[in-house]
Amino acid sequence: MSAVLFRISRLTYYNLGFSGNRPIKIPLDTAYVLIGDKCSQSCLFCSFSRQPRISGKSKADSRKWLSRIDWLEVDYREFFQRFNSNKAFKRVCFQLPVDRKSIDYTLDILSENGIKKGKSISVSAWLSEPEIEHFFDSGVDTIALNFDIINPKTHTTIKGTEFDKKLVFISRIADKYSNKPDALTTHVIVGGGESDLELHDFFQLMKKKKINVALFSYTPVQKGKIPDLQRPSLGRYRKIQLMKYLCDHFENEYSVKFENDTISEFRLNGDVYEYVLKHGEPFNTSGCKNCTRPYYNDSPAEKELYNYFDKLTPKKYREILESLPVIINKKNL
Ligand code: SF4
Predict the structure, then answer these.
(1) Above 90 in pLDDT, residue 301?
(2) Cβ atoms 107, 133 nearer than 8 A
(3) Which of 62, 82, 86, 313 is most deeply buried (CB count within 10 A of its CB)?
(4) Dihedral angle sign, alpha carbons of residues 268, 274, 275, 278
(5) What is the whole-number distance in angstroms between the Cα of residue 74 and the centre of ligand 1?
(6) DSSP 225
(7) What integer pLDDT is reported at residue 98 of this predicted model?
C-alpha cells in the first residue's frame, strides 16, 4: 500500500483521546478523516486546488487546513482501533480529494481494518461509477458527490467543471441506487453566485432524487478567497436553511413566494406552522445522519453560527425566528 497522508480533524483527535485525557468540550458523533493532500481539480475556494492562488510556504501551510478545520496526522491503524472501541462515535466521514492514489488507499485501508459499527461511513469525493460501486461493496453506506456551486455559470468559473454534466451523472447514480436509503449526499455552498429561486428548484430536484443536501455558507478564508464572492448574510442563510428544511420534511405543505428570485414569504399549513414555531432543527447542521461538523465554516469566536451543531434552546430558537428577514404565514394550501 503506497503511503498517503492520513489525518483527522482536531476535534476528532481530542474526542478519540489522542491528546491524553484532555476534557472534551464538543462531543462528536462523526469522526472526520482527511486522506492525502493533492487534488486534480481546480476549485477556487479550496486549499487543495491543483492551481492554488498562493505559493511557497503559505501554500504548504494552507494544506494543513480544509475550510476552517486543521487536520492532524495519525497512524491509521491506531485511528481504527480507537474509533471502533469508542461508543460515542456513530459514523466516520472520509474527505477525499480527486486523486487516484487517495481513492485506492482508502479502499485498501477499509478492507484491511473494517468498521465494526455497522454501515456508518461517508465518503465525500468525486468518484467514477465503478469506484462508487467499489465503495458501496466495501461497506460504505453514504457517498457524497458534491455540486458545491449550483449556479451553472459560476459553477464552471469556480470549479472548472460543467454543472449540467454533473447533474446528468449524479441523477443516473441516484436512480441506480434509489432502493438504497440515504445512499447519496451532496454538499451545497450558499453564496456561490446562485439565487434563492435556484436553490429552491435544486432542493426540490434533490428531494425527488432522494439525495440529502448538506448546506454550507461560502466562507472566504485566506487561502480560498474568491474576489467577486461575499459570504451570504446570516439572514439570507437562515431563510435558505428554513426553505431546505421545509422541502425535506413537509413536501406539499408549504409554499415559498419570491420577489426578483429572492424569498419574500413562506406560507405554511397550520400544523406545519405550529411545528416550525416550536422546533429548532432548521438551523442545525444538515447532511448525512449524525454529521455535525462543528466550526467547519463558522468561527468559534462568532456569537451567531451559520450551522448550529447543538440542539438550540427554545429561547435561542425564538430569537432566531424573530430575527428572520422574511414573513412566515399560516395558510391552508
Ligand atoms: S454531510 Fe458530513 S458526513 Fe456527510 S459527506 Fe458531508 S461532511 Fe461527510
Answers:
(1) no
(2) no
(3) 62
(4) positive
(5) 21
(6) -
(7) 81
Query: Would you say 125 and 95 are in contact if contact means Cβ atoms under 8 Å apart?
Result: yes
* 288 Cβ inside 6 Å of ligand 1: yes
Cell of 49: 486546488
| Interval between CA 285 and ligand 1 midpoint (Å) | 10
Ligand 1 binding pocket includes 187 (Cβ within 6 Å): yes
| CA of 140 relative to ligand 1 center, distance in Å | 13
Instruction: Name the residue with the closest Cα to ligand 1, atom 2.
Output: 291
- Cβ–ligand 1 distance for 224 under 6 Å, the answer no
Of ligand 1's listed atoms, the one at least distance from the Cα of 94 is 8
Report which secondary-structure segment, H or E, holds 154.
helix 152-159
Q: Among candidates 229, 180, 225, which has minimal Cα distance to 46? A: 225
Interior CA angle at 178 toward 213 and 165, to 5°? 60
Whether the CA torsion 185, 190, 196, 198 is positive or negative: it is negative
